[in-house]
Amino acid sequence: FQQMYSLNADAAQYPTPLSPEELQKVSQALKSSSRDCLGLLDQIVPALPNLQAPAPALRSYGTEQKEKEIPGDALDLIGPVFCNTTRPFLLVQGRWSLDVERAWLGLFKEIADMMREGY
Fold this sequence. Notes:
Blueprint: H1 2-7, H2 20-31, H3 34-44, H4 55-67, H5 78-92, H6 98-118
Helix pairs in contact: 4-6, 5-6
């Protein structure tokens, strides 16, 4: 998963308002965040549908990203990178659909919004 996540973490392949310098920084941050992504999901998925339980951890992660000077727009890329990473595995198993993708992207939008509260 981590290798695939790293391959999909090139921010330049996603529509974003980031400058070329920011894209490079965001790509590096995304490539190094695969464990963070899985760790956050380990806290979030068991708490669903109540996202208030993992909210402090998400805000804290947002604060860490700000302290690392990662542009806030990078938070919006975590969901697409995750989906692009997991899609091939789930397609092979016949468990991926447009509805599944929409659900994951919707969840990651909520996650990014909570991270932004700490940013």
